[in-house]
Amino acid sequence: MLTIDPKSISTAQLQGYLQGSVGPRPIAFASTMDADGNANVSPFSFFNVFSANPPILIFSPARRVRDNTIKHTLINVEATKEVVINVVNYDIVQQISLASTEYADGVDEFVKSGLTPVASDIVKPYRVKESPVQFECKVNQIIALGSEGGAGNLVVCEVVKIHIDEAVLDSNGAIDQHKIDLVSRLGGNWYSRSNQGLFEVPKPLATLGIGVDAIPDFIKQSPVFNGNDLGILGNVEALPTTEEVSIFVQQNFAVKAVLSSDDPEKVQLEAKKYLNENDVDSAWKVLLAEPSKQSKNN
Fold it and tell me: What is d(CA 136, CA 284) in angstroms, rounded to the nearest whole number?
């Protein structure tokens, strides 16, 4: 058996062992607002429920291991003492992952992830419309666990209002665990889908993804693509060039045939096949091959 003194290894290694062995962990998609009213939303897997009376949720935005800086979420809850914790199901997991990209201060992750902000009833931060359960919370206490990179900050939240999508309820009004289809976090790129098992979500780029807001309307408005597809398409650093698209089409007879059909939906379904195979670059090349034909969906 491998035996480790936590002080003998790097923080990054220790974090890997902790996250790889303590799980699956539920995900808090925390929506906050800064003192000037700018929205922020970000996921945290150091999260759970700790009390029913009073209803208490706790999540922990840790100090970054690489440079000991703190996240916008922590800054915001310190300033406003309010947060909305939105639960994460499979339908939005790719968009949630995209929202974890460390965009610059002032960039709205709602816009980048393509998720919809909805006004809360009691607190100022927005709820996430697509989340099946949303908890409006007042922050009772923030407990700093250390001052070095990797140190957590326990945000103790009291739930003041709950919003539940009726589509996830059973005939008795209780939450149906199959319908809610929650996802949780493990180590590395691994997630767990509560009613199916393990799957991978590649970590967002170290550089910035273009975001869902940069995806052309004919793609965003197409019934072929769901929120997860848009999250994957938005997590690329740059789109293929015209030359790259042209070379791809010339070398791919199947794509040529689909493009010659003059049917935008067939083209999008072909791109969807590539997405299902985790070949995002080829999916983009298919979609950008004949934008004039796609314009029918604008």
Answer: 38
Question: Which parts of the chain sit beneath pLDDT 50?
Answer: 293-298
Rounded to 10°, the helix 280-289/264-276 angle is 170
Four-residue CA torsion sign, 250, 253, 256, 260: positive
166 CB-contact burial (10 Å; exposed 0-12 / middle 13-18 / buried 19+):
exposed
Per-residue pLDDT tens over the stretch 29-53: 999 999 999 999 999 999 999 999 9
pLDDT at 169 (0 to 100): 97
* Terminal Cα distance for the chain, rounded: 59
What is residue 206's predicted lDDT score, i.e. its pLDDT?
65
Distance CA 233, CA 287 (A): 11
- Tell me the pLDDT tens digit for each residue of 165-185: 999 999 999 999 999 999 999
Using alpha carbons, list the distances in angstroms from residue 145 to 114, 149, 180, 187, 291: 33, 11, 33, 22, 52
Residues in CB range of 245: below 8 A, 6 or more apart: 285, 288, 289
Among 168, 152, 141, which Cα is nearest to 56's? 141
* 133-144 sheet: strands from edge to edge: 39-44, 28-33, 82-87, 133-144, 153-164, 55-59, 47-52
Contact 20, 13 (CB under 8 A): no
Integer Cα distance of 198 and 180 in angstroms: 17
